[in-house]
Design a protein that fits this description.
Elements: E1 2-8, H1 12-24, H2 27-30, E2 35-37, E3 44-57, E4 62-76, H3 84-90, E5 102-115, H4 117-120, E6 126-137, E7 144-156, H5 168-215, H6 221-225, H7 230-253, H8 260-277, H9 279-282, H10 286-324, H11 334-345, H12 350-355, H13 362-404, H14 410-418
Antiparallel strand pairs: 1-7, 2-5, 3-4, 3-5, 5-6, 6-7
Helix pairs in contact: 5-7, 7-8, 10-11, 10-13
């Protein structure tokens, strides 16, 4: 988390003392949570970076300064924050800052807190450690100091906790059992889907060799992909992410790990893939199958088109960053420029982007108008229209195929000629076990969904 504010022409000593008093002596009064300083080896540390001694007289344009940077720090222990030693350090020469030499001042301190919100969900509470840094940035030497606040949070296991009148441990065990069942189910699904992919690849290899020996030519790439079920690949990826995420979740519930971000990314992405996999079952209906086939047919064309359009997009990104960076806050870095241009493509925040261009240079102002008008016209009226046209063309092609029939490939010709010869029905005395029995002759069959 990072917040930025600006303070202009504040007396240096009062600035530092005000923040010190706020952090050290008023912490318990202003904080709404259960926060406190770490008692062992922690406290409040103040470091300043400044140029070495020099002399500056703006009245007669005289400057004599050594640009070598020196760093000086002062440390306050937790037991000293409210005592007389803190008063003595506050009155020391450390806080006599000279702004023409000052580069930045950092106030760093570590706090600890306990989150009681999880108790309402019948879970064990979490203990947090906050590494906070307040930075007074005077690198610009413009008369204004930017103030940054940065906080890094780590979740730790509570060392000593006693909770009475609850059923936390029992509910935690139920959740761990459920997570174990999810892991087992995903593991079985992973094995079955992997087995299907392996058998499909073996069958593909045999068909390619047969076609090469029989017809003396190679099988096309589209026919080779017919053997691989993309939905199975999606299920395999989802199962792997679910298994890893569930293991991390169990460790987090047991307070052994604190990898919340990794766990949430894995479980969230796997959930996304699961819901995307539901589309497979909608393909059994003709209306929904048209949409699925349209996406499959248009995907290669859309990817090639995006590569070409991306080159133009990168060109506008670098151009805006180089030219408009000093004059517009949305063009200060490449990431911000890319996000700003993407918003313009979707018709968002257009007027604000035009209006915030600083009119300090008429040449840059005119260039900004040409730049923005050309980008918006090119991407909205031409590139997006072509993008939609590609998808519409694929949709019309699929509709035509459904009426007149899909093109026959080498694989479909082979299935048409040899499909009925490879299937045999065998009688068995154990009908309940037939689904688990696999004949060696089944390897000669080709099954395409």
């Amino acid at each position: 988390m990072k917040m930025t504010t600006a303070a202009a022409y504040i007396h240096n000593r009062m600035l530092m003392i005000a923040f010190f008093m706020l952090l050290s002596r008023q912490l318990k009064n202003i904080s709404l949570g259960t926060l406190g300083y770490e008692h062992e080896g922690s406290g409040l540390k103040i470091c300043k970076q400044q140029y070495k001694k020099g002399k500056m007289l703006p009245s007669n344009d005289t400057l004599n300064i050594d640009v070598s940077i020196e760093t000086e720090c002062i440390f306050f222990k937790p037991q000293e924050l409210a005592g007389t030693k803190a008063e003595l350090k506050l009155n020391s020469s450390f806080f006599n800052l000279e702004f023409y030499r000052l580069i930045q001042v950092e106030i760093s301190f570590k706090l600890k807190g306990i989150a009681l919100q999880t108790i309402h969900a019948r879970e064990l509470p979490d203990c947090y450690a906050f590494q906070n840094t307040i930075t007074f940035n005077n690198r610009a030497h413009s008369g204004k100091i930017k103030v940054y606040f940065d906080s890094d949070t780590d979740i730790e296991e509570c060392k000593d906790w006693h909770i009475f009148g609850s059923v936390l441990q029992k509910n935690t065990q139920y959740i761990l059992v459920f997570d174990g069942f999810v892991i087992l189910s995903c593991f079985v699904s992973l094995i079955l889907c992997t087995r299907s992919i392996v058998l499909a690849l073996r069958l593909q290899k045999r068909f390619v060799n047969y076609f090469l020996e029989k017809h003396k030519r190679h099988v096309c790439h589209a026919d080779r992909l017919e053997f691989i079920n993309g939905w199975y690949v999606l299920v395999i990826i989802s199962d792997v992410m679910t298994i890893i995420g569930s293991i991390l979740k169990m460790e987090i519930k047991a307070k052994n790990l604190t990898s919340y971000d990794v766990c949430s990314i894995l479980l969230g992405t796997s959930t996304l893939f699961v819901w995307v996999g539901v589309i497979r079952y909608l393909g059994y209906f003709q209306t929904y199958n048209v949409l699925i086939l349209t996406m499959q047919a248009s995907l290669p064309k859309v990817l090639r088109f995006c590569c070409c359009a991306g080159m133009i997009y990168l060109g506008y990104t670098f151009c805006g960053w180089i030219v408009l960076g000093p004059y517009h806050e949305k063009f200060e870095d490449l990431n911000t420029v890319a996000e700003c241009l993407f918003s313009l493509v979707n018709g968002d925040d257009m007027f604000a982007t035009f209006a915030q261009i600083q009119q300090k240079s008429m040449l840059v102002w005119v260039f900004s108008r040409l730049y923005l008008y050309s980008f918006i016209s090119l991407f909205i009226y031409m590139i997006l229209s072509l993008f939609i046209a590609l998808i519409t063309d694929s949709y019309d092609t699929i509709k035509k195929y459904q009426q007149s029939g899909f093109p026959v490939t080498d694989l479909h010709e082979f299935l048409k000629d040899h499909g009925t010869a490879g299937f045999r029905k065998e009688q068995t005395s154990m009908p309940l076990m037939c689904c688990c029995k696999r004949q060696q002759s089944d390897d000669n069959l080709i099954l395409i969904n």
